[in-house]
Amino acid sequence: MGPNGAGKSTLFGLCAGLLRPDSGRVTLGARVLADSRGTWVPPHRRGVALLAQEPLLFPHLSVLENVAFAPRAAGASRAAARTAAERWLAEVGADELAGRRPAQLSGGQAQRVAIARALAAEPQVLLLDEPFAALDVAAAPALRRLLRRVLEGRTAMVVTHEPLDAHLLADRVVVLEGGRVAEAGPTVQLLERPRSRFAAGLAGLNFLRGRTTAPGRLAVDGLGEVSGTLPEAGAVPVDEVRADRVPPVAVPAAGEDGIAVFRPADLSVFPAADVPHGSPRNAWRAVVRELEPRGAQVRLHCDASGHLLVADLTPAAAAELDLVPGRAVVLVAKAAAVSVYTA
């Protein structure tokens, strides 16, 4: 996962053999597939299948012949390839489409056939580059359920912009930014304790970076000291982390790089003249930049001394506060709602 231009498709091109690395190397298990010293295994000998955003089915072949092409290219007999194609078409729920040509398929049907063709090659690794991008909203959920089922027990890498894909499909998430790995780890860890702004956005959290001054306190440029709490440490040893468990939290020492995250629902909005006092809380002056309807709520995008913060409130509250772009406000987050941890 990562923003546009982060290098996700380039990474897949290196894995699939569409690009040669200028440095470093590409390995699959103990095999070196490519390196900067001249080692090069051609794409068709890598055991890697790449499924692009578009199905790219052969237009002159039937659905059955498209899927049978993969085992035939690997040396299987015509009968064996046909048997394999029929099995994979049934696996993806497209066996009734066997006699059709690609031009007679819907977008969702064509993508199912493309998945069957990729799996019929029996790859060691399956690369899926935004497999739902070309589908309409109605077809994507069914295909997502299909992938969750057929990828069970297989090794796959998926490029996606959709947090739901990470929740449903991934054991591990890697976030790329500017051609480098910004963070990586078990899915639940990245979504609950993000260490990059992109991952925080996926998790729907506000994100601030600064330097710790004490446990639960973070100095942020322009905002001063942010007060929060440490996430519960848990009891899972770091060397026993599973994909569905979050490792313990290290208590940040003063002077370390730190992060504070909190939900938009935990950010309250007040008129600029009011600065609430009372229980431990954070209060920041900000300017409204944008209002975005989100179902039964309004999402408020604000600039707080150069930091983008978002708050969720009801349409009635937005109207009562007369919120419009350019309006000065005070944003308040209770310390108990803010998690502070090391970066």
UniProtKB/TrEMBL annotation:
SMART domains: AAA. This is ABC transporter ATP-binding protein. Residues 277-342 form the Mop domain. Transmembrane segments: none annotated. One of its GO terms (molecular function) is ATP binding. Keywords: ATP-binding, Molybdenum, Nucleotide-binding, Transport. The lineage of its organism: Bacteria, Bacillati, Actinomycetota, Actinomycetes, Micrococcales. It holds the Pfam family ABC_tran. Residues 1-203 form the ABC transporter domain.
